[in-house]
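Input:
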Amino acid sequence: QSVLTQPPSASGTPGQRVTISCSGSSSNIGTNYVYWYQQLPGTAPKVLIYRNNERPSGVPDRFSGSKSGTSASLAISGLRSEDEADYYCAAWDDSLSGVVFGGGTKLTVL
Amino acid sequence: EVQVMESGGGLVQPGGSLRLSCAASGFTFSSYAMSWVRQAPGKGLEWVSAITGSGGSTYYADSVKGRFTISRDSSKNTLYLQMNSLRAEDTAVYYCAKERDYSSPRGWLDPWGQGTLVTVSS
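Output:
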């Protein structure tokens, strides 16, 4: 049981917009930054969104993040086949004194 | 180029010990926190442990507290994870990751290594 809650799966067709939610609590998302990671099959995770809504250089602007209260979301617009991957949210948890991850969302491009 | 690379994984019997290493390059090692994150086969990411840039503070997931010890050697630019009393449920790929912009852990992990597989089985 993960501290941060994500839907286990999401899907969309090419060109569509999909969103992935991440629900936490006041000790993690409510007071700390949220980070999103993309893990392509057979590879190590890489950061997709940092500090709630910022994109590292090289990440397409099709990816965007937002946060409100104790929840966050990742939006992917103009869905492409290469976006098929697992997506994880993460945040520091003040009560646990550790990094907490969501359970991950497997995105399928139909 | 900022890089981290894990080593030391392998097959170990339940109750045994193993030490993982993570060699860092391309940045001032002592300025950044480092973390270990694991992924059991077919499962999601689980944060395991972190250490501040100075090495003065360490943090552990409840699942490994008292069994695993994180440490760092700035003279060798190397991060370690000493794993004792290993259990079958510790079987996973273990990733080393650099905290992108902080000397204390915050969850902004970049880059990650390629991972090293630890298998606990008799």
